[in-house]
């Protein structure tokens, strides 16, 4: 007999919103916000039986897409005396 249940454990690859939030170490509300207020920003989700689910592979891909690149960070200008200009103070 074939089982009709879906393995929702983290090892199974399909996660509930609670599991996805825990996997990403973010609040569940953040996933809902990304989905409703910032459409297209958060990881891709799947609706299964009216319930929101996340594939672990989609979560991993989303994280990989959002890695910081330090190649684009401009160098911080330095004065001749060696002091950084990144937080220059105003004259007092």
Automatic annotation (TrEMBL):
<protein>
    <submittedName>
        <fullName>Helix-turn-helix domain-containing protein</fullName>
    </submittedName>
</protein>
<dbReference type="InterPro" id="IPR041657">
    <property type="entry name" value="HTH_17"/>
</dbReference>
<dbReference type="Pfam" id="PF12728">
    <property type="entry name" value="HTH_17"/>
</dbReference>
<feature type="domain" description="Helix-turn-helix">
    <location>
        <begin position="15"/>
        <end position="66"/>
    </location>
</feature>
<dbReference type="InterPro" id="IPR009061">
    <property type="entry name" value="DNA-bd_dom_put_sf"/>
</dbReference>
């Amino acid at each position: 007999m074939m089982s009709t249940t879906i393995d929702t454990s983290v090892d199974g690859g399909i996660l509930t919103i609670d599991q996805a939030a825990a996997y990403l170490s973010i609040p569940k509300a953040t996933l809902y916000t990304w989905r409703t207020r910032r459409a297209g920003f958060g990881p891709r989700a799947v609706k299964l039986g009216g319930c929101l689910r996340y594939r672990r592979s989609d979560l991993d891909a989303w994280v990989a897409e959002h890695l910081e690149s330090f190649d684009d960070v401009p160098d911080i200008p330095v004065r001749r005396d060696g002091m950084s200009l990144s937080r220059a103070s105003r004259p007092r």
